[in-house]
Amino acid sequence: MYKLKAAEWRPEHFKLEVADRVATITLNRPERKNPLTFESYAELRDTFHRFQYAEDVRTIVITGAGGNFCSGGDVHEIIGPLTKMNMNDLLAFTRMTGNLVKEMRTCPQPIIAAVDGVCAGAGAIISMASDLRYATPEAKTAFLFVRVGLAGCDMGACAILPRIIGQGRASELLYTGSAMSAEDGLAWGYFNGVVAQDQLMEKARKVALSLADGPAFAHAMTKKCLHQEWNQTIEQALETEAEAQAICMQTQDFTRAYNAFVAKERPKFEGN
User: Is the same domain home to 61 and 156?
Assistant: First the structure.
């Protein structure tokens, strides 16, 4: 079986650390509020794709350095060059950015976004595409595409954001480009929690470790069903989940949990 160790990867455009089966990605251009470039987009896409083979990672945390999450595409390194591209090159770029979201949604590990400060444009999309989101009171999340003359329908925003916060609220953010405060994000269900800046990574890591200690195979199945049932009928979803749960019932983790319950012990999940 093809397996990799993420702890051995050395990405060029962001930091990657692996400890206790938790991979932490840190966007690391703090002097510019961690904007993305063509290269960092592609490397993030490829990294999330490789996580499906990473035997030492059960949960992923993504965050930004220097008190900000991500300011989106770099104005000088992405926005400027895009104004000079032909349609074929533009479509290649927009498909590539969409593939980043696709890889985030289809990698088996739960992804936790730890959001502080500016979370804008593609940065807002990355937080949106994560499974769980925690923020500081200073977090400002804005889908800024309309501010540069683009549609709000970027990288799956029109499909995913309404499912998180509702059609009306998503429409307002995507039409106006206005910022969603941490308080509103929490009230609307975008953020799972809001904590002080000095507690953000501690909170994200605590949740990540809790998930990493859980049944990895079952978590991957939950994520898969959450993703693919968006476009299924209730009847189809019921069948999908019947099959998924039957498969999970054949895992050793399920047997371990039963035996631990009988012995009045805490189960230790191995992910198989």
Answer: yes
